[in-house]
């Protein structure tokens, strides 16, 4: 009896030692790989999947380790990255940690809500459909970390919460002399500033032009508002603005209406919201493109007309630039 017990102990110890050595030894994976663990998988399902995909040598060693370390109920679903040669212990630790792969989802400033929904639809790691396009101007464009399977509507809710938090913060720090009565009006004006310039250092000065015009009861005369009124946030105009477009009666055409349009023309980013809430202190009333991606500013119509004449000359020399003038107060193309 003693001999049998001793043999059993020795065999058990040998099995434990062999199992442990296989548990910590480099695994069979020959190249870095990614693997998705479905949400409805239990321990045995996961072990079978890992073995089938060549991540572990012995599924029973993996199962025994998971049970022995009380980790069997802690394995988390998701998409994981595993390095070549990862041991069974490395694999188990990764699944327990829940450190799934994160993707950067970048939403550029100024996109309309319709364009944002389209961008989410094209981002393949997300799941689900969007039942209703969010209200224009209610989303905060920036880079978001997402994981595979995140729902598109969850991302939109996250963007809306971020926008509200940022808007409240900026509204509390605004220059009280800026002629906007509500946070919603700040978003409207910031959306115009966002569309008018891609130069970060210009935003406060562009915002100042519109603030000065509002103070003087002048029409904003912003080209992007014409475009939004024509396409209503769905795509691009894909042609230069014409004189006929100026007279097209839309609620957003700030050549035709006084004050602010009834809503935003896109989703402004934090920088444009900040620039609009605290614009530069200038007397500028006009600006037009300078041919380098920026703008030249003017305090009166005489200066502006000279700047426009220079821009028209640039247009003739660079036909591809026509129709993207970023005008305020300049005559459109015929």
What's the SSE pattern?
Answer: HEHHEHEHEHHHHHHEEH
Low-confidence stretches: 4-18, 321-325
Radius of gyration: 30 Å
What percent strand?
A: 5-15%
CA-based shape = elongated
Walk me through this protein's architecture.
With 334 residues, the protein is mainly alpha-helical. The chain has 3 domains: 74 residues, Endolytic murein transglycosylase (Dna Ligase, domain 1); 61 residues, no CATH class; 141 residues, no CATH class. The protein contains 12 helices and 6 strands. The radius of gyration is 30 Å and the shape is elongated. About 6% of the residues have low confidence.
Helix and strand topology:
Elements: H1 2-24, E1 33-37, H2 43-52, H3 59-68, E2 78-82, H4 88-97, E3 102-106, H5 113-122, E4 143-147, H6 152-172, H7 183-196, H8 203-215, H9 223-231, H10 243-246, H11 270-277, E5 286-289, E6 295-298, H12 301-317
Antiparallel strand pairs: 1-2, 3-4, 5-6
Family: Belongs to the transglycosylase MltG family.
Protein name: Endolytic murein transglycosylase
InterPro entries: MLTG-like
């Amino acid at each position: 009896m003693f001999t049998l017990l001793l043999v059993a102990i020795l065999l058990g110890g040998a099995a434990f030692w062999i199992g442990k050595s296989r548990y910590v030894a480099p695994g069979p994976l020959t190249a870095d790989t990614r693997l998705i663990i479905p949400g409805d998988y239990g321990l045995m399902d996961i072990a079978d999947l890992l073995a089938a995909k060549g991540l572990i040598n012995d599924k029973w060693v993996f199962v025994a380790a998971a049970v022995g370390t009380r980790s069997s109920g802690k394995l988390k679903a998701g998409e994981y990255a595993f390095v070549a040669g990862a041991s069974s212990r490395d694999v188990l630790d990764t699944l327990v940690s829940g450190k799934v792969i994160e993707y950067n989802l970048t939403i550029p400033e100024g996109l309309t809500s319709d364009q944002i929904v389209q961008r989410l639809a094209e981002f393949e790691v997300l799941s689900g459909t969007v039942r209703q396009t969010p209200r224009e101007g209610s989303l905060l464009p920036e880079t978001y970390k997402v994981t595979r399977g995140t729902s598109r509507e969850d991302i939109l809710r996250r963007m809306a919460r971020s926008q509200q938090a940022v808007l409240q913060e900026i509204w509390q720090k605004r220059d009280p002399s800026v002629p906007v009565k509500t946070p919603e009006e700040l978003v409207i004006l910031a959306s115009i500033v966002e569309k008018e310039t891609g130069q970060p250092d210009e935003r406060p000065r562009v915002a100042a032009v519109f603030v000065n015009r509002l103070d003087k009861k002048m029409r904003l005369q912003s080209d992007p508002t014409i475009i939004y009124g024509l396409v209503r946030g769905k795509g691009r105009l894909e042609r230069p603005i014409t004189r006929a477009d100026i007279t097209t009666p839309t609620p957003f055409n700030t050549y035709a209406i006084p004050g602010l349009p009834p809503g935003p023309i896109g989703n402004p980013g934090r920088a444009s919201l900040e620039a609009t809430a605290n614009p530069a202190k200038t007397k500028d009333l006009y600006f037009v493109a300078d041919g380098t991606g920026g703008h030249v500013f003017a305090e009166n119509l005489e200066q502006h007309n000279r700047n426009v004449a220079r821009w028209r000359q640039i247009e003739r020399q660079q036909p591809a630039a026509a129709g993207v003038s970023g005008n305020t107060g300049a005559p459109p193309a015929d």
